[in-house]
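Appendix B. One record, verbatim.
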Amino acid sequence: MKHTSSRELFGYWTARRGTRAAPERSEIEPAAIRRALGDVFILAFDRCADHPFRLAGTRVCALFGRELRGQPFLDLWDAQSRAAVADLLSGVSEDSVGAVASLNAQTAEGWAQGLELLVLPLRQRGESQARLIGVLAPFSVPFWLGAAHLQGLTLGTVRHLDPTLEAPAAARLLPGAEVVNGQHGVFVVHQGGRS
């Protein structure tokens, strides 16, 4: 994750989740993520309605020049990316594994903009496939913000955030696993192999 809003939301979501697959929607306190709030959104997990926005931060709405509440999330994407984004949202919800992706978009004037997308699962009143929380934020503040708006988003690279690889939670989630902080990141070592 490159964007500070993504890192803030992911850290908060991880703390609220604890050892569960996902936190409850009612556990998310906006004041706790106030610096990222303008870049945060919540979606209803509803395939038939193309995952409408339940809420969208002011900076997210400003990128598209309109209020997004109630609007289908998939309508923000170009035709070539929609199926992949729908699959991504299904995977996040069904597998309770977050994802971070790079995106590209342009305004009608042809100004290009790189963005980061973070999507994380939320439970709603005990139901696991109900809500998604995330961040949609530009890598740099666009000079055109307020005068132009983005058109179809294009999906770039995607990376899944596997909670079993987080330290120290990995040791709790995988019995017998040893968490090793190596030079290139966190590794989980499982006992076994050739004897």
